[in-house]
Design brief:
The protein is mainly alpha-helical and 269 residues long. The protein has a 3-stranded antiparallel sheet with strand order 2-3-4. Helix 4 crosses helix 5 and helix 11 crosses helix 12. The mean pLDDT is 88.
Length: 269
């Protein structure tokens, strides 16, 4: 390792420490090799300013991205979680957008958390919102293209879902809870209630969620996997046999609704 690279590694290690550098006698000599100090601040005190900013900036970014999770945990447990997370997974990207990409998995591993299952669901949904916000744009489905598709072609047609859409199965109504927390509305932690969620970005670039039936969710999953329309319907009916009549009866209405919401952005024949 070159001299510069070694200093950079030492600096990174110091900035990621959880406790103040200027009160730790063991780092004073190390700090003096990295910073010069001045008539107001010692080298350790200079580095402490940067260490504070590292934690403030990164914890602040996570608070903004995972406000619902913080609302569930409360300040004390949230601070412990975030400190543990940043210690285990230091930032690896120049973009703060990617800072929380491993947080849902980390929350799942952090079994000490109160309301653990609820917290896991919330972290997963909040990361889905981040992915949807940054997802690529897609051209809306052209009604003229739909009108030109021959009836016999629909059996093998593939419906293309929007890149700004995520499908999640959760055990708690976390999307509604997240909205209440972010809007500063009064809330209480909900009991378990399984939901099939679609998290998506609408045409006005607003982030939305929609609870769908098990049959509709199974069909969307099959379509997302690239299956053609008829095999996708068959797969959904096999997965949720109780909903087979509903899938058959409501398929046209679902398709119209999904196209209007820009969940379906193209049909390939």
């Amino acid at each position: 390792m070159s001299g510069v690279a070694e200093l950079q590694a030492q600096l990174a290690e110091l900035l990621q420490r959880r406790r103040a550098l200027d009160t730790d006698p063991t780092v004073r000599d190390q700090a003096a090799r990295i910073a010069t100090g001045n008539d107001r601040l010692s080298p350790a005190e200079q580095l402490e300013l940067y260490r504070e900013q590292f934690w403030l900036r990164h914890t602040g970014s996570l608070v903004e991205d995972f406000e619902g999770l913080g609302g569930i945990l409360g300040q004390h447990d949230w601070e412990r979680l975030v400190e543990d997370y940043l210690a285990a997974y230091p930032p690896r990207s120049f973009s703060l957008r990617d800072l929380g990409d491993r947080l849902p998995a980390f929350v799942e591993q952090s079994t000490w958390l109160p309301h653990h299952a609820l917290a896991v669901d919330m972290a997963r949904v909040e990361w889905a919102y981040i992915e949807v916000f940054d997802a690529a744009d897609a051209t809306p489905l052209d009604p003229a293209k739909l009108a030109s598709i021959p009836e016999q072609a629909w059996e093998s047609a593939r419906l293309v879902l929007s890149p700004a859409l995520r499908l999640l199965e959760v055990g708690y109504p976390v999307a509604a809870l997240r909205r209440a927390i972010r809007h500063k509305d009064p809330f209480s932690l909900p009991g378990a209630a399984a939901q099939k969620l679609v998290v998506y970005r609408d045409g006005a670039r607003n982030l939305q969620h929609q609870v769908v039936s098990p049959g509709a969710f199974a069909l969307l999953q099959a379509l997302a996997s690239g299956q053609a329309l008829v095999p996708a319907c068959q797969a959904a009916m096999a997965e949720v046999p109780d909903e087979a009549p509903r899938i058959e009866a409501e398929l046209t209405a679902w398709f119209q609704d999904w196209a209007a919401r820009a969940w379906v952005v193209d049909v390939l024949v």
